[in-house]
Fold this protein.
Amino acid sequence: MEPMEALVAQIQGLSSNEGDISRLHSILKQADDSLRLDSTRLSAVLSQLEPSKHSLGYLYILEASTSVPMSKEQADMLVPVITRFINSCAAEHIRLAHDKFVSVCKRLKDQVMLLDAPMRGVAPLLTAIRKLQTSTEHLTPLHPEFLLLCLLAKCYKTGLSILEDDVFEFNQPRDLFLYCYYGGMICIGQKRFKKALDLLHNVVTAPMSTINAIAVEAYKKYILVSLIQHGQLSASLPKYTSSVAQRNMKGLCQPYIELANCYSTGKIAELENYVQANREKFENNNNLGLVKQVVLSMSKRNIQRLTQTYLTLSLQDIASIVHLNSPKEAEMHVLQMIQDGEIYAAINQKDGMVRFLEDPEQYKNCEMIEHIDSSIQRIMALSRKLTVMDEQISCDQLYLSKAGRDRQRYDFDDFDSVPQRFNL
Amino acid sequence: MEADDQTSGAMIDEIYANGGDEEKCRRPIISGEQLDVEAYASLYKGHTKILRLLFIADHCENNQTMQLEALRMVYDEIKNGENTQLFREVVQKIDGRLGTNYGMDEAWCDMVDRRAEQKKEKLDNELNAYRTNLIKESIRMGYNDFGDFYYAHGQLADAFKSYVRTRDYCTTSKHIIHMCMSAILVSIEMGQFPHATNYVSKAEQTPEALDPATIAMLRCAAGLANLEAKKYKLAARKFLETGQVLGNNYNEVIAPQDVATYGGLCALATFDRTELKNKVIDNLSFRNFLELVPEVRELINDFYSSHYASCLDYLGNLKANLLLDIHLHDHIETLYDQIRHKALIQYAHPFVTVDLRMMADAFKTSVAGLEKELEALITDNQIQARIDSHNKILYARHADQRNATFQRVLQTGSEFDRDVKSMLLRANLIKHDCNLRQSRRL
């Protein structure tokens, strides 16, 4: 066991300053393969190391020791070990071995899934994300894993906390797709339909050369959420959507498109019949719950439309116009909507009349001004970011060579003979 | 608030009473007068007479006497012409219901057909002779004769082709006008109204000044084409521009009475108040047309002076007859709906509050029905108001510009925010993809 003990000693000795750490890193890289061969005996070595002090070494050994498939009992033992490591490790160290850390975290996810206790992975993964990301705009490969665990554990609120950040950078497009898709589902769970729509929209309109399953599923949910949020589905995808998506999406989501058409007629009975007839399809896609919300949203929308037209209306009339069964049901709907702030109205129970009011917001108070001010600041920041990005791209060599090549129809290989102005 | 209601309520009372009283002094509106087929038919000549009568016969199945009357006149009219194909169809339609005098006349048919055969041969020979001699004018005449021949025998597509062929041999603008007029006539009969528009503009482009009668005819043709294309406003303009000289010159297409009716209804459905006043009521030449159809004149005046009930009454009475009109038939529902909507909008426009019961009285409808109509108009944003269904009052609603602006600004801001963010993401995705491909190539 000479080499192992020597390695431990090196880890212990070389974990203090930066120069040492980089030396240690190269030593560990060389030792990686031999560590894997010895994976069974590594747990003993782990106990000699301090996760907070020897983060890098601990990470390599932990990664190697978890590389073999394991049973439920072993997983149960290992979860607290990894959790403790994630909580106490030093962020600068683990960022050096980015992939190792990601793979350890993914194994943690697999283990909690194996143990059927996704809740146990939520908090450690959140910590891991925060430690791994260099800025809040950075999307780590752990984001989708974390959101998946949140979904399974139904910890939607925790999930929302990372969805608040706007991400721009990512390592793999797949991470981004999954992040937006799972994020959309979490927002749906929290009934934040606007945010959900934005996230799903990102997936659907993302540039892609072949159609992918994530985008198709996202589009199905996008249709449903769009109906709930706006009461309609725009007939075509925006023109920046990739051509494969524009061509194939509609065909792949036929029942959903038809549902949207049915919705646009405004007849609740027809919609219900359609949903009943296609119940199985929606159920197979695990979208039945959302479809039911769509049906519910229709009566809400109809009531909302009434507020544009009427000042007072009896509950009886509301029930008949919106196709509800009884005035009582209409009253419940109106009450619920007043509570949710979706309409402004007062119910007079004595004569069964509803009085619709105007939006009381006068845009005169301090909060509104603050809100507007912060929006202006936000948009100014965004516009600065846009300028920076534009400058970056216009100086990007790859972009320029491509743009120049496309214009001139030169192949990349004989690009050298092209005048220098394209090379910048 | 309450005091306000009362005053405005009283005001409505007064205004309504005004309209109501005057109404009583007027002569009663004759209701549902049946169309006098003979008088109607005498307005037209040529093919349109036959077609219009046939149209009436096809569309008044529940009125046997009228149908037979129309068919009888068609029979007589066709006998004067040479269209044996149509003759056979009409005889089939009559089906012996008009006695032996109006049965199948094989001898006549054979004779006409034989003569047609001969004439065609003769025309053919003549045309060939002209063509070998290359005399432009004669070739034009030859094609024109062919056109006339086909037209008389009801072969409209061939007639149209022959008339259009004369175009290459036209030497003066008079010839061009003649060609255009023939083409317009045939295309209107075929129902090919885009062709009609086409040839109207061709005729109008001729360098020499046209005589007023031709201009009037062209205006009518353009009006008809626009009417069929559902461009009611343009149609109204064209009919209104039609000069008095039209008279009975264009009876093979349209009677001056029709100009008044088509133009009046289209104008009513699409013009706003000032336009209605300037272009219809104060239009001297159109007034002469309106004199021919007093009902339309009355209803336009009623509409302008806000006597909607009597206006709608007139419209209701005219409806049955207008439905028997070959050109107006398809558009009458749309035009009527538009006129009614305009009336509702104009009625509600000057008031802050309107009592729905009085409004319903003025429009001769029930409060519930009126509420439905108003609801549709408000949803369409044609009336800015809200209905107090409890007290049956319509309140005008004045949009708060300031609030609306704030709302719009905030919304635009958040849309921009969202769009830019998703654009940046897409840009990054493309960049990633691009980098990947490059690194693979290198």
